[in-house]
Design goal:
single chain; 4 helices; 3 strands; alpha+beta; Arc Repressor Mutant, subunit A
Length: 96
């Protein structure tokens, strides 16, 4: 089953939040995203000020989550938790 862009972005943000600044290949493996899609999503996240890119050496770039990215990730976790609770409680309410 394919992931949505939202799920892919969340996985990228999670990888950066957990493991700190990462190079492209490290994000690929930790977020399980292929290179071309990862580049597109990183560009989008950078444009939205959720991620920042830093040059380490001539051709090496590290990506890090920004504070705004952490807030978005926290909000996603809260919404996900709320929706999971709602889904679990609905069948119980129907039984009574």
């Amino acid at each position: 089953m394919r992931r949505s862009k939202l799920e892919t972005n969340v996985d990228i943000l999670k990888a950066l939040a957990r493991h700190g600044p990462l190079k492209l290949t490290h994000i690929m493996y930790k977020a399980n995203v292929n290179c071309s899609i990862l580049k597109q999503q990183l560009n989008s996240l950078i444009e939205q000020n959720l991620v920042e890119a830093t040059m380490l050496r001539k051709k090496t770039v590290a990506y890090a989550i920004r504070e705004k990215g952490r807030r978005v990730l926290k909000t996603f976790w809260e919404l996900n938790k709320a929706f999971q609770l709602t889904e679990e409680e609905e069948p119980l309410l129907l039984l009574y």
